[in-house]
# Entry
Amino acid sequence: MAIQDLKPEPENTSRRDLFATAGWAVLSASIAGVCGAFVRFLSSNTVPEALSVSLIGRPDEYPVGSATFLEEHRVYLLRDARGFRALSAVCTHLGCTVVKDAARHGFRCPCHGSRFNEQGEPVVGPARRALAWHPVALSRDGRLQIDRGRAIGAGHYLALDRR
Ligand code: FES
# Structure
């Protein structure tokens, strides 16, 4: 009589199995999610060197005195009598895209009002760091290329030979 009372009812066993299976499924999915996030955390978040270099056309496409916003690259390509330079359009405060401010001969950030002079130096906060300069070079086939993966000191121009 006592043995008969201890036997689980088939319906309860089935429900218990279902809950156990669901619990294991949820636990497995959680572990997989945590492992995936950890792997993403450990992997590099930088753009590989080769992908950071962009060909942007021939020098004669950019007249002296031009300031061209390359939206795809978030870079301003500027050309003056000294040559070409590439100035990052990424605001050093929180990363908004700065716009050319022709009236003030510089750049302004529409997000929080930072202003930068023509050289990219901050003149009004909250941004405190200068906009990055990226190297501009000529490719072997005579096209301009910008390396957005590298920052260089302000004042570096690509001067073209004018023979
Ligand atoms: S992101 Fe440019 S001022 Fe805040």
In short: The pocket of FE2/S2 (inorganic) cluster is lined by residues 91, 93-96, 109, 111-114, 126-127 (CB under 6 Å). DSSP finds three helices and eleven strands in the chain. Residues 41-50 have pLDDT under 50 and may be disordered.
